[in-house]
């Protein structure tokens, strides 16, 4: 069975996961993948927070297993969805299509190459072909979006005012799940891009306390729209990959 693309989904995708998950065995653990038919496309949805626990926190997600399972299914194209806070005053509910990242995680395994050295190039970390399809779809729907740098923190706590002040000098949005996904996808020579939903103002930008409830509530208002966007993005993906993602490890090995 040919699967057109994979969606790496975060909080809010539970209502779309009907039936039993297909269990994919990987060297890093088992992964539950939901294969669904939407608008004539076959899509694999990997809910990154699912696991034995009710909700796997961001710093405990088995990122390597998730990416390996996608590759095992023969999928070449991945669209990630991420909920993020804005450090630059983006409107709540608007979208950001990241074009770069800063990795401030601390304990996550961020490579498949534990016993050999492979230096993959990350000059353009997000697949330009998929990113263009995301932006074209958002423009077609008349939805507000910007480009920006994604800063990934370890979590599960939110950031301090001082941390946000520092990070706002190097990035635009802050989240906890974008890394090491994008790096692992590149190591596997998969195409990976992300659509980020602004769910809150980062710490210190308002006088209000940041809560998980506001993040979940905002995602709840956007989940149907986001799924509609994702289906249109996947429908617009080119059959042929013309990016450099597929050649990521060429010349990278020592």
Automatic annotation (TrEMBL):
Pfam families: PNP_UDP_1. It is an enzyme of class 2 (transferase). Substrate binds at residues 176, 200-202. Pathway: Purine metabolism; purine nucleoside salvage. Phosphate binds at residues 48-49, 177. Its EC number is 2.4.2.44. This is Probable S-methyl-5'-thioinosine phosphorylase. The lineage of its organism: Archaea, Methanobacteriati, Methanobacteriota, Stenosarchaea group, Methanomicrobia.
């Amino acid at each position: 069975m040919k699967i057109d693309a994979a969606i790496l989904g975060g909080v809010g995708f539970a209502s779309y996961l009907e039936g039993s998950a297909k269990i994919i065995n990987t060297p890093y653990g088992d992964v539950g993948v939901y294969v669904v038919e939407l608008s004539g496309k076959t899509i694999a949805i990997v809910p990154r927070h699912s696991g034995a626990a009710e909700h796997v926190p961001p710093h405990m997600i088995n990122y390597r297993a998730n990416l390996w399972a996608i590759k095992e299914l023969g999928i070449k194209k991945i669209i990630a969805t991420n909920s993020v806070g804005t450090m630059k005053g983006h409107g709540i509910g608007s979208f950001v299509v990241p074009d770069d990242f800063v990795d401030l995680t601390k304990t996550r395994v961020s490579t498949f190459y534990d016993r050999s050295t492979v230096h993959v190039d990350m000059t353009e970390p997000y697949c330009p072909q998929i990113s263009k399809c995301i932006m074209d779809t958002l423009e077609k729907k008349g939805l507000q979006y910007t480009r920006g740098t994604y800063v990934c923190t370890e979590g599960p706590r939110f950031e301090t005012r001082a941390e946000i002040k520092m990070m706002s000098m190097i990035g635009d949005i802050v989240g906890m799940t974008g890394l090491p996904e994008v790096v692992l996808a590149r190591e596997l020579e998969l195409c990976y891009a992300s659509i980020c939903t602004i769910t809150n103002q980062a710490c210190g930008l308002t006088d209000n306390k940041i809560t998980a409830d506001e993040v979940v509530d905002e995602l709840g208002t956007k989940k149907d729209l986001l799924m509609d966007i994702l289906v249109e993005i996947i429908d617009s993906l080119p059959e042929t990959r013309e990016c450099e993602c597929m050649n990521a490890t060429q010349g990278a090995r020592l």
